[in-house]
Amino acid sequence: MGRKLTLLDNNKKHLTKDEVEDRKSAEKLAGDGLVEMQITAPNHMNSIAKQEYKRVVGDLQKLPLRNLDRAILENYCLWYSVFKETSKKLNEEGMTIVEDEMSVEHPLIKTLEKATKNIKSTASELGLTVDSRLRLYLPKKEDKKKDMFDHFG
């Protein structure tokens, strides 16, 4: 697939006029040319997922996310709901259970770990982390290729 693109305004690379036009066109299609993100939470979500959807969707409108990205947002909200419900159950039941007169780790801890991993992954895709937002707006540092002169002086 190649290197990730940076926004044209943040790009320090010297581009030809054709490359600038291509980038402008790509940015427009990636953000402004598509239907905006649905503001209301889908009905099929549970109350925790709907609450999280409502909490983040307003801020997501400021990023170049569109309705095509809604499945990722729904996935994030679903995993957030699983995380909250699992955390609540673990707080009620404790982190360990007694099995055959031995204390063992509660099986829900694996669910919590999976939910955490999926939240982190989907949040990053949506720009919900500081790092992922910075990658959208800060240009990548270009590694200058070394030639024989740089290597030997």
Structure description:
The chain is mainly alpha-helical. 56% of the residues lie in helices and 5% in strands. The protein contains six helices and two strands, in the order H-H-H-E-E-H-H-H. It has a two-stranded antiparallel sheet. A hairpin with a 2-residue loop joins strand 1 and strand 2 (102-105). The model has no long low-confidence stretch (mean pLDDT 79).
Report strand order across the widest sheet: 1-2
Percentage of β-strand residues:
5-15%
Poorly predicted residue ranges: none
Q: How much helical structure, as a percent, in the residues?
A: 55-70%
Find the structural class using helix and strand composition: mainly alpha
Q: Could you tell me the number of beta strands?
A: 2
List the main descriptive attributes of the protein structure presented here.
two-stranded antiparallel sheet, single chain, mainly alpha, 153 residues, 56% helix
Write the layout of secondary structure elements.
Elements: H1 17-32, H2 47-60, H3 70-93, E1 96-99, E2 102-105, H4 108-126, H5 130-137, H6 148-152
Antiparallel strand pairs: 1-2
Helix pairs in contact: 2-3, 3-4
Question: Would you summarize the structure shown here?
Answer:
This protein has helices at 17-32, 47-60, 70-93, 108-126, 130-137, 148-152, and strands at 96-99, 102-105. The chain is mainly alpha-helical and 153 residues long.
